[in-house]
Write a structure and sequence with these properties.
Length: 257
């Protein structure tokens, strides 16, 4: 205490005191709760655990979140000096796309007082089971009349077999060849015949059936079209949307609109 030093004989009391310090959070969470990519067909439960440590002594630590996204629980430490665990489990049937929600932690002190709620962010993404590898293909510089090919892979994240029903692109000069299918993987060759000059990008949508569900998996591609040697101005880019013709290795049509 500073009182004896300022209250003795001849002590002069200052007219101003400057007090410094830092207010710390009552709960320290080690690590982020990020589920990454979760396949829509991947069997659950999908759970993550992170360490939580309460700085002041607490009687209890409660956790809650929106039940639409998941459930949470707090596992107490096995030893007084050990951290506890926060467990987060996702709800079944989350839609495709990103999810982002908060877990609310409320510590109760030994005297029954409740400290302010502290939030922990939970993130991730529900994705199609079938993925395109790579998801985007850069074909570089292409001269008109000089087609380019690239091999891509359709793969099941869970190793399940699937069926490629069709492929569609809104651009002329695009076709795909189904080279090989082995269980949960399909090798495909992308064939692009450039029809315009300049920076060009497009997509091919593969309609696949996996786990009884039909969905479209996109592949993005891009190139820079150049005029062919000795030719005049390049033809205008076609604007009509055509169905892609899928052929096998021998050139026989597998399907055609």
């Amino acid at each position: 205490s500073l009182y004896p030093q300022i209250s003795g004989p001849g002590a002069a009391l200052p007219t101003e005191w400057r007090i410094r310090g830092r207010v710390r959070k009552a709960i320290v969470v080690t690590g982020a709760v990020d589920f990454g990519d979760v396949s829509v067909l991947e069997p659950g439960p999908h759970s993550r655990r992170v360490e939580v440590r309460c700085l002041p002594p607490v009687r209890s630590l409660s956790a809650a979140c929106d039940p639409e996204y998941g459930t949470v629980e707090v596992l107490p430490p096995q030893q007084p000096s050990d951290p506890g665990r926060l467990g987060v489990s996702l709800s079944k049937g989350l839609p495709l796309g990103r999810f982002d929600f908060n877990v609310r932690l409320t510590p109760e002190l030994l005297d029954g007082a409740l400290l302010p709620v502290q939030t922990v962010r939970v993130t991730g993404r529900i994705v199609n089971d079938v993925q395109v590898i790579p998801p985007e293909v850069a074909l570089g510089l292409l001269r008109l009349g000089m087609p380019a090919e690239e091999s891509i892979l359709l793969r099941s994240r869970t190793g399940q077999p699937f069926l490629v029903e069709s492929a569609e692109s809104p651009m002329d000069g695009v076709s795909v060849t189904l080279s090989r299918q082995e269980g949960g993987a399909v090798t495909i060759r992308l064939h692009v015949d450039p029809k315009s000059t300049g920076a060009t990008s497009g997509t091919v949508g593969f309609r696949v059936v996996s786990g009884g569900e039909s969905t479209v998996v996109p592949l993005r591609f891009s190139y820079v079209g150049l005029e062919s040697a000795g030719s005049g101005p390049a033809a205008d880019s076609a604007s009509s949307a055509d169905q892609v013709r899928v052929v096998d290795d021998q050139g026989s049509a597998l399907w055609q609109q």
